[in-house]
Write a structure and sequence with these properties.
Elements (H helix, E strand, L loop, with lengths): L29 E3 L4 E3 L7 E8 L2 E7 L10 E7 L9 E7 L3 E7 L12 E8 L2 E4 L4 E2 L19 E3 L6 H7 L3 E7 H4 E2 L7 E5 L2 E5 L1 H17 L2 E7 L32 H17 L10 E4 L17 H20 L6 E7 L13 H14 L6 E5 L12 E3 L17 H8 L14 E6 L7 H16 L4 E6 L6 H4 L16 H8 L5 H12 L3 H6 L4 E3 L7
Parallel strand pairs: 11-12, 11-22, 12-16, 16-17, 17-18, 18-19, 19-21, 20-23, 21-22
Antiparallel strand pairs: 1-2, 3-4, 4-7, 5-6, 5-8, 8-9, 8-10, 13-15, 14-15
């Protein structure tokens, strides 16, 4: 689905979870792309077994089967910024080498020497120079630092993309969740901006736009007062705001135009700015005067390189590696404030087929994402997935075309008809979080067109919601959108529950009924449209398929 919707400022867009990941064996050497090089593990002798915050300190435990030789019989622990590789950072601790060893050093939270979002590696001195002998590893329990933890507002999976702020409409629908896009260039400014909000973080002054922040303050507070759980999607857009220039990755600064660009994890200024933004948002929206953001999505459909997380590089390894660095920053900085926040990545439904050759398959991207997350320290990240129909304007969610959707893991697309493939994939042991649990999976952007018939849209809504509600691993089901968009309708995509004039489609009442005592009545109506019982289709994982465009092909 490459892609469909232009994100606009001050428009709420659903984005969230589910996908797959695969842990690979260590790779040797380095992979070179058309725009850079990423160093990979080389079967290094020392393993970092844990890297944990304990009080005001960090404790790193390491082990090895055979102690690597050295000039002085010592292990040195380096703290690197995310853009640094090898023994180029700061030595934060040293200890006698051995088959097991422990390093202890200060966390230094919110100071110029903060180690919260740095990566650590072990080195030995040999021949007068430092040699890296372990993989990099991040802190895996930043929540141990959390001092502003807010209770979560989990009370249902049903959500929607709203285009107004009338709580009565969404109370009528019975939705529990909202999603909102936050554009980083909207919220940053320089010291000369009237009313600029000063935020000193890690010893550096940063400034936030009073008008930009006011927009998000109002929405977060509205959700809090109205009882809606909120997911905030952080996007990196290009504007003429000079204060946001350092947020754009160097490999994203050409003339390519799209709604989202890679975050700057390559330079010191941009990296520190990202840390400050993450910390500022977490502090501001973890209880307090403005309410709480329970869920944060870092980027949108990040496998869609040319459209939503642009880098000039088409090297998957390099692109994933750069995204992981940004994800680590936001994960550690947010969780260090609010332990209950869930941090999601985001991929699209193009599991094993690209509609745009410049993008990556979502399965490939997540496989490599998981590889790096496991190699550098497993944490409780969540997975955001967008299981749109294939193609987007296909009206028959319950019976997709065989060329696009199958009931095998090799399926070109994962849609609501075969969403269980995704959650089954995520149940494998190598994809579990550090506690052995299946990760939170959110379907925070999903919609169905009415362009070929209101009844088909209504039946699709009932079928898809039933699929999600009966899957214990799906935590969010966010319909995109409340009202049709005229531009999307030019491509036969009319996904709103309301028409452009504000009148309700049948799908509105179907969605309203889902999760209530009335749902079986509407499921029966939907089953008549489909020609099969929805509850049976879902319970038995009955997979229907067709060969052509028409329903009965």
């Amino acid at each position: 689905m490459k892609k469909k919707i232009s994100l606009m400022k001050k428009v709420m867009v659903a984005v969230s979870t589910a996908a797959a990941v695969l842990c690979g064996a260590h790779l040797a050497g380095a992979v070179s792309g058309n725009a850079g090089t990423v160093a990979l593990a080389e079967g290094r002798a020392v393993t970092i077994d844990s890297c944990l915050i304990q009080g005001k300190e960090i404790v790193v435990n390491v082990s090895c089967k055979s102690v690597p030789g050295s000039d002085d019989g010592k292990f040195y622990l380096y703290a690197d910024e995310v853009y640094e590789d090898g023994t180029v950072g700061t030595v934060v601790a040293s200890t006698e080498s051995g088959k097991s060893a422990t390093f202890t050093f200060p966390l230094n939270y919110n100071s110029s020497e903060s180690n919260l979002s740095k990566k650590f590696l072990v080195a030995v001195k040999k021949g007068g120079s430092m040699n890296q002998v372990s993989d990099e590893h991040y802190i895996t329990n930043p929540e141990s630092n959390a001092y502003q933890t807010a209770a979560r507002n989990d009370h249902g999976i049903k959500g929607i993309l709203p285009n107004d702020a009338e709580a009565s409409t969404f109370k009528d629908l019975g939705v529990a969740q909202m999603v909102y896009n936050l554009y980083m260039s909207d919220i940053v400014c320089d010291a000369t901006t009237p009313g600029a909000i000063l935020f000193n973080y890690d010893g550096v002054d940063y400034y936030f736009s009073p008008t930009g922040i006011a927009q998000y303050d109002a929405f977060v507070q509205w959700c809090d007062i109205s009882g809606f759980q909120l997911t905030m999607t952080i996007l990196n857009n290009k504007t003429d705001n000079p204060a946001a220039a350092d947020l754009i990755h160097p490999l994203s600064r050409d003339a390519h135009v799209c709604p989202g660009y890679a975050m700057n994890t390559k330079e010191e200024g941009g990296t520190k700015h990202l840390k400050a933004i993450a910390a500022f948002l977490a502090m501001r929206y973890s209880s307090g005067a403005y309410g709480t953001v329970d869920n944060w999505v870092i980027g949108n459909e990040v496998n869609a390189r040319t459209e939503w997380y642009y880098m000039s590089s088409d090297n998957l390894e390099l692109n994933v590696n750069e995204y992981v660095k940004a994800f680590r920053i936001f994960y550690n900085e947010i969780k260090a404030v609010n332990a209950n926040a869930i941090i999601y990545n985001s991929i699209d439904q193009e599991w094993q087929r690209k509609s745009n050759p410049g993008c990556s398959l979502s399965k490939d991207f997540l496989d490599r994402f998981n590889y790096y997350m496991l190699r550098e320290g497993n944490v409780d990240w969540g997975l955001s997935f967008h299981p749109y129909n294939a193609p987007l304007y296909d009206p028959y969610t319950w019976k997709q075309q065989a060329i696009y959707v199958t009931n095998k893991i090799t399926t070109p697309y994962i849609t609501m008809e075969n969403i269980y493939l995704l959650t089954d994939y995520m149940c494998q042991s190598k994809f579990l979080n550090q506690y052995g649990q299946v990760r939170n999976i959110s379907l925070s952007e999903i919609g169905f067109t009415s362009d070929y018939g209101d009844d088909y849209q209504a039946a699709s809504v009932a079928y898809a919601y039933t699929m999600a509600a009966n899957n214990p691993y799906i935590k969010s089901f966010i319909l995109f959108r409340e009202t049709d968009d005229a531009h999307e309708m030019e491509s036969h995509i009319a996904q709103g529950l309301k028409r452009l004039d504000g009148t309700k489609k049948p799908a509105y009442d179907y969605y309203k009924a889902m999760g209530t005592a009335e749902q079986e009545t509407y499921k029966s109506k939907a089953s008549a449209i489909i020609g099969a019982d929805i509850n049976s289709l879902v319970a038995n994982r009955t997979f229907l398929s067709r060969n052509g465009w028409n329903l009965n092909d």
